[in-house]
Design goal:
Layout (H helix, E strand, L loop, with lengths): L8 H20 L4 H8 L3 H13 L3 E6 L9 E6 L4 E9 L2 E8 L4 E8 L8 H15 L6 E9 L2 E3 L4 E4 L10 H9 L3 E5 H12 L8 E6 L3 E7 L2 E2 L30 H5 L1 H11 L15 H9 L3 H25 L3 E5 L6 H15 L2 H4 L3 E4 L8 H12 L2 H8 L1
Parallel strand pairs: 3-6, 6-9, 10-13, 13-14
Antiparallel strand pairs: 1-2, 3-4, 4-5, 7-8, 10-11, 11-12
Helix pairs in contact: 2-3, 6-13, 8-10, 9-10, 10-11, 13-14
Bound molecules: zinc ion.
Length: about 400
């Protein structure tokens, strides 16, 4: 997180190996030390040493199990010791904040959802500190040893420094969120964009498990994408994000909050989709959309029943998104494209519009095999934050902090 405290070469190897071993125990436990040594491609002596440290720190424990390869007496296997370690995953959305206390298996212990109000009297950073502090006081009796805090939010952020440059719906400029909370709580704090963290959550717990190259597109109140490239989240610890929502689609289009005109977000977000539908509705007296208040749910339901206007506007969004994805496909050659959107309720209209546009506009060799899949989470909640913690354990960076106590 801190750019000036990069570990030395030996420490880096130790950190990476510890992360690999922890991940293998998580995935395959109960697992014997011998099997661990084979899978990690590390010498048995190294495995013994790493496991000893983890046992002493209560991060793993031994258990008897029946090794499928051998009959006879049960073997000693290793599993994670997750119950006595907690972390706090926080999700900030316009108008609300969700705080979930989880143990290291990601199981939720306590979840609170609160309004997050912008007031001129109190800076947002102070409000956030107070909310976190109050949460810990309120649930003190449930707390086990705390490991870290992970925060996901929309806006322009620097994940490396934990600084939030801008955030929609709040008057925020250069808010040092990560550093302030770290100082206040003494815990490591991870800050990441909501969509990037959701992309990681799908890779670790959801629809893209094991895939090395994935593009995830989110079409909601905002439009954005996350990319897994070579098994890693693109820009994971970087200063920047994948900002496809602010790519110009229509030079004569309406102004966007970023200052440009006709951004993808102004033509493909759910809000702009509802506006467009409302504009066209008077010229479509037959439309089923006259029968109910206009919402994304009623729009999708009308599309499912064959309503022409509803199908046209959803397909229109699909074509815009497909055009953007065609360029991304040519860059990343993904195995899988995930779509996270309330419009997935009308996926039989949306998905063909997206995929036909990709096939027309991307390199055939890249686009031929592509599968569009809905995200596993309709709403990731604080699983984005949980994914950041798991990723930091697997990479070893958070793990070594826990080992050092
Ligand atoms: Zn924009």
């Amino acid at each position: 997180m801190n750019l000036y405290s990069q570990p030395g070469h030996i420490d880096q190897i130790k950190q990476t190996n510890a992360g690999v071993v922890y991940r293998l125990i998580d995935l395959y436990g109960p697992i014997s030390r011998i099997e661990l040594s084979k899978r990690a491609q590390l010498a048995p002596a190294s495995i013994t040493k790493i496991v000893r440290e983890m046992l002493d720190a209560h991060l793993v424990q031994e258990t008897e199990f029946q090794d499928p390869g051998s009959r006879g007496r049960p073997a000693i296997g290793l599993i994670l010791d997750t119950l006595a370690w907690h972390f706090l995953a926080i999700r900030i959305q316009p108008g609300q904040i969700t705080l979930t206390l989880r143990d290291l298996s990601t199981r939720a212990i306590q979840e609170d959802r609160l309004p997050l109000l912008a007031t001129p009297e109190k800076p947002l950073l102070q409000t956030l500190q107070d909310i976190v502090n109050d949460f810990f006081i309120r649930h003190q009796s449930k707390l086990e040893r705390l490991t870290a805090i992970a925060i996901t939010l929309p806006g322009l952020i620097n994940a490396a420094s934990g600084v939030v440059h801008r955030m929609p719906g709040y008057d925020v400029e250069e808010m040092p969120l990560g550093e302030t909370l770290a100082q206040r709580t003494g815990l490591p704090v991870f800050v990441q964009h909501d969509i990037s963290a959701w992309t990681l959550a799908e890779a670790l717990f959801g629809a893209s498990g094991g895939a090395q190259n994935v593009i995830q597109i989110v079409i909601d109140e905002t439009v954005g994408a996350g990319v897994i490239s070579g098994g890693q989240l693109l820009h994971k610890n970087g200063r920047t994000l994948v900002e496809i929502g602010h790519t110009q689609i229509d030079p004569y289009g309406q102004q966007c909050y970023c200052g440009n005109n006709g951004c993808l977000e102004t033509v493909a977000s759910t809000g702009s989709l509802l506006n467009l539908t409302a504009q066209r509705l008077p010229s479509q007296p037959e439309s089923l959309l006259h029968d109910a208040p206009l919402t994304i749910a009623s729009l999708c339901s009308a599309a499912q029943q064959g309503d022409r206007l509803a199908r046209d506007v959803i397909a229109g969004v699909g074509h815009h998104i497909g055009r953007m994805l065609a360029m991304m496909v040519n860059i990343f050659n993904p195995q899988q494209i995930l779509i996270g959107s309330p419009l997935n309720q009308a996926s039989d209209v949306l998905f063909p519009a997206v995929s036909s546009t990709i096939r027309q506009q991307a390199l055939p060799a890249y686009s031929r095999e592509i599968q569009l899949t809905p995200t596993a989470f309709n709403d990731p909640g604080t699983f984005g934050g949980a994914a950041l913690i798991k990723d930091a354990l697997y990479s070893g960076s958070l793990l070594v902090k826990l080992l050092q106590g």
